[in-house]
Amino acid sequence: MTVNVIRKTLALSTLVLCVAALVSPTGAQSFTATVVGQVTDQNGAAIPGATVTITERATGRTRATVTNSDGNYTIPQLPPGRYDLRIEAANFRPVIQPDLILETNKTQRVDIVLQAGDVQETVTVTGEAPVINTDTSSKGEVISPRQVEDLPLNGRNFTDLALLVPGIYRRPSDDDQGEGFATSGTRTDATNFILDGVVNRSDRNGSVGVNTSVDSIREFKVETSTYSAEYGRNAGAQVIVVSKSGTNEFHGTLFHYFRNTALNAHEFFAKAQGAAKPVIQLNQYGFEVGGPVRKNRTFFFASWQGQKVNFADPVDKAFGESVDLYSPSALNGIFRYWVADPVSPLVINGQRIVQNGPQLVDPATGRYREGVRDCQGPGDTNCVASFNVFAADPLGRGMDPLVKSVLGRYPAPNTYSAGDGLNTGIYVWNSPFRIRGPHYMMRVDHQLSSKHSLFARYLGARQETLGGDPLNGRPVVLPGFPPRGEVFRPAKNIAIGLRSVLSPRVVNELTLGLARFEFLFTQGEANPDFPNQPRFTFNNSDVDYTANPRTYRAVTTPQIVENLSIISGRHVYRFGANMRFYQHNDQRGDVGGTSLVPAISLSRTTRPPAGIALPAVATATRPGIAAVDLNRLQG
Q: Of 132, 332, 419, 536, which is most buried with the most CB atoms under 10 A?
């Protein structure tokens, strides 16, 4: 049984008009950069009508504008990268500012002083442009291409680099996305991810929608506070990612990153329990290649990353609790309990023994510790008494055949370091699972004309967690049994953008996007016996199965993003709109953690069996079975 939910929402996320004095740009959602500045002579007088030309080094693409009456200029909506800036005016020597680095969603100020002289002589500025942002109030940090490529990343997840930004911290999440990060005290689901101007966000706890390979990222910026009006959807961090594009030169990379069990330290608590070192075999491999289709005009970039990851986590970590099992004697109907002397109970390692516990047995074998013995008669104390459940049943039916078919196929506990020591122990092992699935991206950039440029980018990924779902507590519980669930996560993100320089003072950028994010939690359907698994739940023993059917979620988000920049005199007017159509389809195998399928549970208070004479409960003066052990017997 499943519950289907369909939600459709048209979100007009951003519709803003921003006016900025002194050419300090702001405005609609953008993943580009802006250059601003003032051109003056040696006496500080403004030079109007100077020609400002900026050239992208990698592609040769140029943009030009002229300074206004105050000598100010603005060149908005430039792709991040390295540029050369050239300023020319009549009767002044041209100036070149080389190797200007423009970063994502950042305004770079470059003020230039021209010297009177021969226009045939060129002045090259050797000092770097100022790195302090004096033109916008947003606070954030750009993660540079070198950081993205060179810093070690466990699992090659680029979002881990966001932790380098002040104010960003990782906080655990109970959601199906695992851990998320937050900023300045906000919730994890307040984080927003934008890729090439298009939303790339999971709908649940604010994690990234399609996690692209780090080799596909040019750079990204994390804005943490006081960001401009275009980021109106979320109150937390804004993670703005720009994908790589091709250049005038061919470049390519082959890579293979790996981790291996032999190179890892043992987990402290697993080692203390005598468990084997967890298996970690991580292989991530692939390539990226880019270059020109036609120099200075058309460029391509492509990347592909495969992964073959084998993990084995301690089962209590993957399952969320220890795997409790009955001892062989308990499965034969013999329930053992400690009878303490009310006046002078047995002391083991400084602890008074008044009920069942692991202290009574050798944790490795379950045999009695020295000094622990069976009771010799009804009045004996500080000893282990036995109660034959099957013999006490007046109907003499013994264990139910269906219950026996479930519990009888499980192995005996392999340690009695937990449980009650006499009737239950736990099974300790490393539960394996596998992660498979590629990440791939293709991008094409084309210069339609001197005024119009176009890009198209497709990003896809498929991540499959096979042989168990440890993130959600559904691993293989016991060796040789099927998993309690697997996860399949296909996703894609598409963007098409047109940038038009309508005039030196009017620039328009239109981006169309589509994001689709799917989650399939198979749960009980990972079991070949589904839907015919048993429906028993037990109080003192875990089971290998779950009968819940799948949970499926698909989120589709078409998007239109429009940015328009108009420079007029001393002001920059920015108009922007961001429209998203949000469709969320759900199939729920359980709702709010409540199963929708029937289950059979046992209770000592609901319809308890009649006619069974149970052991007497111990009091302060009378020996007997401890109340907690009696509850366990009846459960």
A: 419
Nearest to 192 by CA among 241, 254, 136: 241
Residue in this structure with the two tokens 């994001």, named with its chain if needed: 515
pTM equals: 0.80
Neighbours of 417 (CB within 10 A): 19
Q: What is the per-residue pLDDT across 326-378, written as a single tens digit (0 to 9) for each? A: 999 999 999 999 999 999 999 998 899 999 999 999 999 999 999 999 999 98
- Using DSSP's 3-state secondary structure scheme, residue 84 falls into strand
Q: Do 180 and 189 contact (CB within 8 A), yes or no?
A: yes
CA atoms of 337 and 381, how far apart (whole Å): 11
| Rounded Cα distance, 575 and 77, in Å | 13
CB 611 within 8 A of CB 394: yes
Beta strands in 569-593 (DSSP E): 571-588, 590-591
User: CA–CA separation, 244 vs 300, rounded Å?
Assistant: 9
> Of 204, 236, 241, 206, which is closest to residue 220 (Cα–Cα)?
241
Tokens 């709010």: give the residue: 592
| Residue in the block written with tokens 């950042």 | 106
Give CA–CA dist 577/617, Å, rounded. 73
What amino acid occupies position 548?
A: N
The helix/strand/coil state of 599 is coil
Alpha helices in 410-538 (DSSP H): none
Given CA atoms 112, 114, 118, 123 in this order, what sign does their dihedral have? Answer: negative
- Angle CA(306)–CA(311)–CA(313) in degrees, nearest 5? 155
C-alpha distances out from residue 434 to 279, 312, 346, 487, Å: 11, 9, 48, 11
The proportion of the chain whose per-residue pLDDT surpasses 70, expressed as a percent, equals 89
Half-sphere exposure of 223 (CA within 13 A, CB side): 27
Cβ(121)–Cβ(97) below 8 Å: no
Q: How many residues does the chain have?
A: 635
- How far apart (Å, rounded) are the C-alpha atoms in residues 60 and 359? 76
Distance CA 196, CA 220 (A): 10
CB 210 within 8 A of CB 239: no
Q: Which two tokens stand for residue 106?
A: 């950042």
Q: How far apart are CA 39 and CA 95, in angstroms?
A: 10
The model's pLDDT over 496-519, given as tens digits with 9 standing for 90+, comes to 999 999 988 899 999 999 999 899
Query: Long-range contacts of range 173-178, CB-CB < 8 Å, 24 or more positions apart?
Result: 173/205, 175/204, 175/205, 176/204, 176/471, 176/472, 176/519, 176/521, 177/202, 177/204, 177/205, 177/207, 178/207, 178/471
Q: How far apart are CA 192 and CA 237, in angstroms?
A: 6
Instruction: Say how far apart CA 153 and CA 420 lie, in whole Å.
Output: 43
For the segment 583-625, what is each residue's pLDDT rounded down to a tens digit? Answer: 989 888 877 777 778 888 887 778 777 888 899 999 999 999 9
Contact call for residues 481 and 474 (beta carbons, < 8 A): no
Percentages helix, strand, coil for the chain, rounded to the nearest 5?
A: 10, 45, 45
The amino acid that residue 324 corresponds to is D
Q: Are 43 and 244 in contact (CB under 8 A)?
A: no
Residue type, 204: R
> In 3D, which of 535, 516, 323, 321 has the Cα closest to residue 411?
323
Handedness of CA 414, 419, 424, 429 (dihedral sign): negative
Whole-angstrom distance between the N-terminal and C-terminal Cα of the chain?
A: 29
* Location of structure tokens 């519950």: 3
The angle subtended at Cα 432 by Cα 431 and Cα 433, nearest 5°, is 130
Pairwise CA distance, residues 224 & 182, whole Å = 9
